[in-house]
Specification:
A hairpin with a 3-residue loop joins strand 9 (303-305) and strand 10. The longest helix has 28 residues, at 63-90. This protein has a twelve-stranded mixed sheet with strand order 1-32-2-3-7-8-9-10-18-19-23-4, with helices on one face. Strands 5, 6, 24, 25, 26, 27, 28, 29, 30 and 31 form a ten-stranded mixed sheet that branches. A three-stranded mixed sheet has the order 17-11-21. It is of the alpha+beta class and 801 residues long. The protein is built from 25 helices and 32 strands.
């Protein structure tokens, strides 16, 4: 008995020692926000003050030191995120996550991102300031790699730290550019519809732009003197990195603000994940200052402001990817047909290392148009070779110089010249300054195809008639400077025709994959209604959850029904929809009814003809474009159910059936009382970390789930998959909300979806999540006196000190 007591005593001591050891080990993995550290290559002391939300305010004597310090502090908060995103574009995720990511790795490694990075780096001006500062940033990252602790994810996956190179920076740019591209999710689908169903079906999906559509208007005035579809879709399901989705931005001129100064608002829409996409920092030197938002491994911010100017981005949604059917030589499959005879495919050998498995070796064929996707995506069923022509890999890459120039501009002229360097991804870049200028530039290298070419279907690679015939000069891109409206905006909607020049598209609308006018119409309506905007007004507006289009969709749908066709519950549901103002509030019932009705309507309209392609269409932006147009029609070829040979279905048949199906489903899902079908019961948000896929780790690494308001294509745009489940789990939304007011720039406000740190052990991992859900903000501090009163101060010292 005494022996047993001793054994238990020793076991208890051992457990306590292990617990203490684990505690101190975990503490050692946290970022260092206080004290002194030596950093090689610094020329002077750098002070980093951390505010209440873990945002570093970096004070340095020169910008090279500041950029090196940024690299170090960025890495200690976000090294795991850096590791995942650098592996994605290079096709190295299988090394972390095993065989389930092999298809994803084959796809991304086959796009040509790495090859384009190598070519770009070989041609860089190594004496440029952008290059030197980038190398300083990477040096800071790598010094943390050498001296700092590994993130806990590295221990869980059993991987070691590797130093980062300039290739990794460009690979991040490449992933961002591909994530912004849309054609790979749409062109193959439209080609299937055309080939399987015919032109009449395709014609009804070509959405006309009418005089009533909300277009972004072009207007350039003087500057003020004061200063393959389903396969690709499946691949995205497994990505551990957030894809870029859309965005809102608007800049209000001084004539429309209460304090007579410019206000800029921006909320970039990106797939939710954990950690948050953006890393905030504030840099101050004697001759430079910038409060910026950086992607992992990018040295210069894509969103930023100082005391003189501010800028933000949305997706342009231009068409920068074209697919081509190649025609192989019947005698030699390594050759393909061109107007000048057969040419030989370039063959690239690739290898993917796989965790706990043998490496995968494969080859990629590349035609003059680009990589042949059949050889990259195993389950493409079309026997014809399909090559992807992507402008990102075909033209010189100036993203490093562009992001440097945007964050170092002295005037609007400087800023415009910097944006002109961007060839891909297509971006709407919004600008406002303290000199009362406002501007919008749609940046991308735009090009022309022949008039007869439909760029939204797969083109003929052998004919020579479907090739690019001209690139447009940047002056012909859609843009506006100090327009008569006194505001500029973008919600990923269609820009109006660019200026007409000798090589322009002759006043026609530039082809793209623009989103519906829902958000744009709401933004324009709110901006037109006032001329005395304050920062508080804009903060409220950026959280707006009312759709300006959905009520008219409902009205057009319900016009065709007859009251006697419905039960009492169905009539109450219909009345709820009729009384709806389009708002997606937590306690609203109408959004729940509408989204289930919309799903049933789409099933009853399109599924019989589309078959297996319907699931892709269901969550394609083409579907969003079709909703308002289809509901407004009185007749449509799509409404005839091809499975009922002796009956032709009408709009009334489809709407009635869809409403009945929706009510039956909701009664089963949420109960018989219509009043209980509130939006909060079906609309939730969880920020998912790759480690959260393991059930026992989910509550530690994931943030949420939360009930949340908002919805698809309202200003507070929270996207979700529309499917048969009746639950709307949010997958994308505002990656940040920013409001910069030049009447009091030091009091500008922002919020992240979860927190500043990507370290799960850090208190700033999720300390903004509740505020984000409630539509609240935190300050973007720039006042030196206020900042230097914070207790947490990290001093980075040169080795010579």
């Amino acid at each position: 008995m005494r022996f047993l007591k001793k054994l238990l005593k020793y076991l208890l001591v051992l457990i306590i020692l292990i617990a203490v050891g684990v505690y101190f080990f975990l503490q050692s993995l946290k970022p260092t926000y206080e004290g002194e550290l030596k950093l090689a290559s610094l020329t002077d002391k750098v002070e980093v003050y951390y505010d209440n939300y873990g945002i570093p305010h970096i004070y340095a004597q020169n910008e090279l030191d500041a950029r090196r310090a940024l690299g170090y502090v960025h890495a200690q908060d976000r090294l795991w995120q850096m590791e995942v995103i650098r592996r994605l574009a290079a096709g190295r995720l299988s090394e972390l996550f095993g065989e389930k990511l092999i298809r994803t790795d084959k796809f991304f490694s086959g796009l040509g991102i790495e090859e384009a990075s190598v070519k770009t780096i070989a041609e860089l001006d190594k004496s440029s300031e952008s290059y030197k500062q980038t190398m300083a940033y990477l040096d800071g990252v790598n010094q943390f790699i050498k001296d700092g602790p590994k993130p806990i994810e590295f221990y869980l996956l059993g991987i070691d730290k590797e130093e980062y190179t300039l290739n990794d920076v460009y690979n991040v740019f490449g992933y961002m550019a591909f994530s912004f591209a849309i054609a790979h999710k749409t062109d193959p689908l439209l080609t299937q519809i055309k080939e399987n169903l015919g032109d009449d079906y395709l014609k009804e999906l070509n959405i006309p732009i009418t005089d009533n559509s909300t277009l972004i208007k072009n207007e350039v005035n003087p500057i003020l003197k004061k200063g393959l579809a389903q396969a690709v879709n499946d691949l995205y399901e497994n990505l551990p990195v957030s894809p870029f989705i859309g965005s809102n931005a608007w800049v209000i001129g001084p004539e429309k603000t209460k304090n007579g100064k410019v206000i800029l608002a921006n909320d970039s829409h990106i797939g939710f994940g954990q950690p948050s996409v953006w890393y905030q920092s504030h840099i101050k030197t004697p001759d430079y200052e910038m409060y910026g938002y950086n992607l992992a491994l990018t040295p210069f911010p894509l969103l930023g402001h100082d005391r003189h100017y501010a800028y933000g981005v949305t997706m342009f949604e231009n068409d920068d990817v074209d697919f081509y059917f190649e025609e192989n030589n019947p005698q030699n499959p390594n050759e393909y047909k061109t107007p000048n005879g057969y040419e030989t495919y370039k063959i690239i050998d690739k290898e993917i290392k796989v965790k706990d498995a043998e490496p995968i070796k494969y080859q990629i064929k590349v035609s003059k148009h680009g990589p042949v996707m059949n050889d990259i995506i195993e389950h493409i069923t079309d026997e014809r070779p399909i090559a992807m022509s992507w402008i990102y890999t075909q033209l010189p890459n100036k993203m490093l110089e562009a992001s440097f120039g945007m964050s170092h501009s002295k005037t609007l002229h400087d800023f415009k010249n910097a944006t002109a360097l961007v060839h891909a991804p297509g971006l709407n870049i919004m600008y406002g300054d303290a000199d009362d200028n406002i501007a919008w530039f749609a940046v991308a290298k735009l090009y022309k195809l022949n008039d007869s070419v439909n760029s939204k279907t797969i083109l003929n690679g052998a004919s020579g008639t479907d090739e690019k015939i001209a690139y447009l000069d940047f002056s012909e891109n859609p843009q506006a400077i100090n327009p008569k409206s006194k505001y500029v905006y973008s919600a990923n909607n269609q820009p109006a025709s660019p200026a007409v020049g000798p090589d322009s598209i002759a006043g026609r609308l530039y082809p793209g994959y623009y989103l519906t006018e829902d958000r744009a119409k709401r933004i324009v309506g709110l901006l037109e209604a006032k001329n005395d905007f304050t920062k508080e007004d804009v903060m409220e507006m950026i959280n707006d959850v009312t759709s300006s289009v959905t009520p008219s969709i409902v009205e057009n749908a319900l016009r065709s029904i007859k009251a006697y066709d419905f039960s009492d519950s169905e009539k109450k549901a219909i009345q709820t929809l009729q009384n709806w103002d389009g708002s997606y509030n937590l306690e609203s019932v109408a959004p729940t009814i509408y989204n289930r009705f919309l799903y049933e309507f789409l099933v009853n309209t399109f599924k019989d003809e589309m078959g297996s392609s319907f699931e892709l269409f269901l969550n394609n932006r083409l579907q969003k474009e079709m909703n308002a147009v289809q509901m407004a029609k009185d007749s449509s070829i799509w409404w005839d159910d091809i499975s009922t040979k002796n009956k032709i279905e009408t709009k009334q048949d489809i709407i009635t059936k869809s409403l009945k199906n929706a009510v039956t489903f909701l009664e089963s899902q949420l109960g018989n009382s219509v009043d209980q079908w509130t939006w909060n019961k079906v609309h939730t948000l969880e920020h998912k970390h790759p480690m959260g896929e393991v059930a026992m780790l989910r509550k530690y690494f994931n943030v949420g789930p939360f009930e949340i308001n908002g919805g698809s294509e309202v200003i507070n745009n929270l996207g979700f998959k529309l499917d048969s489940t009746g639950y709307y789990q949010v997958t994308s939304g505002p990656s940040t909300r920013r409001v910069i007011d030049f009447s009091d720039v030091e009091s500008s406000m922002s919020i992240l979806p979860t927190g500043q740190s990507g370290n799960v052990l850090n208190k700033h991992y999720k300390d903004q999540a509740e505020k984000f859900n409630k539509g609240e903000f935190v300050p973007m501090l720039m006042n030196e006196k206020v900042i230097k009163e914070f207790e947490r101060k990290l001093v980075l010292m040169p080795e010579s000190y």
